[in-house]
Amino acid sequence: MTTEISLYIFCVITLWNLFWLSSKRNDYQPNALAVIIPARNEGQQIGALLESLKNQTLLPKKIIVCDDNSTDNTSELVKSHQQHNSTIDLVHVPSLPSGWAGKCWACYNGYLHLLKVQPDVQKIVFLDADVRLQPKALERITQNSKPFLSYFPSQKYTSSDIALTPLVNWLILTVLPIQLAETINNRYLVTANGQCLVFTKECYETIGTHKAVRYSFLEDLDLAKLATQHGYPLALEFGNLVECRMYPNLLSAIKGFSKNLIFTHHRIQAFILLIAIVSLSLIFLNLELWWLILGQRILVSWFVKQTWWEVLLHPIQMFMLVITALASFASRLFKLVFWKDRIYKTSEISFEETSETSFEETFESVYQES
């Protein structure tokens, strides 16, 4: 009985989220904008993103690609695009210092460069190198009047990581009451997706830039928490104006999601979150209500512009979610995170302990290069 009631509750949350997101009407205003792209060994991805930025109906004043000590041809590809697009700047990020996560360090250096070359921009868009933009994406996203917006891209996947990646947007739309998240400034009711973050320059500087969360592997979530703490309302959008193909295979997807699925370094909190994820998976494996689960999954896939037939793999996806949660929990136990050919040793200092103080460094980079 408990699982049935829980399932109905999650379905109600999903329906209300889709209604709320569909009925929102944004106030639009023109903005001068810049795009910052952190890139480490993104030679297979960066070209398509730069090409999609060139075709925008609202062109950014500056596109800053931050090459974070790549060992592939990332810089060469960016330079080739610079020949046809004068708005692209290539920034060679200095070696990663102790106390910084690589992505935060790259984004922060991109922002410092922006202050030098284009200080008059009103909005800053942070994009991961593996996203693609529809021609009207920047026009639609950046003209939203909210000071902080997180756009959840439509996820694209291969024949193997389809066993896990489709759950990215599904988890948010199933669990989080988005209307409450957007109307109540509560850091425990926030979410964000670092694949596409949009800030007004004022908001970004007020919350302390990426330097304020320099230790974080969940910089998107921690930046959102800081924004709410400073009184900025959260804005969330979903759709296919931005698309993302994160991982080339299932193993890469497990490795990537395990980095942040268990998003706390406190072992007791991590264990509680692990139990919650396993419980959620079991709730959505209720065979007696298979028709309700299937309908909810299809509805979410339609809303976020993903393929409907992915839901046929639902049992496998729930199993892989549990496997990923266990891998994420193990990384918290051993205080090690492997990401982008780097190894980080984490500490037991949490975001809540540091966000309102001096932002002490909570991890040290063990190896800066593999």
- Secondary structure tally, helices: 14
Question: Unreliable runs, pLDDT <50, ≥5 residues?
Answer: 348-370
Characterize the overall form. globular
Classify the fold: give the CATH topology: Spore Coat Polysaccharide Biosynthesis Protein SpsA, Chain A
Largest sheet: 8 strands, mixed
The string of secondary-structure elements, in order, is HEHEHEHEEHEHHEHHEHHHHEEHE
Beta-strand segment tally: 11
As a percent range, the share of helical residues equals 40-55%
Total of domains: 1
Beta-strand percent range: 15-25%
> What is the CA-based Rg, rounded?
20 Å
Strand order of the largest sheet: 3-2-1-4-7-6-8-5
Q: Mean of residue pLDDT?
A: 86
Mind telling me the CATH class?
Alpha Beta
Oligomer: single chain
Question: What is the CATH homology-level superfamily?
Answer: Spore Coat Polysaccharide Biosynthesis Protein SpsA, Chain A
Structural class: alpha/beta
The CATH architecture comes to Alpha-Beta Complex
Amino- and carboxy-terminal Cα gap: 51 Å
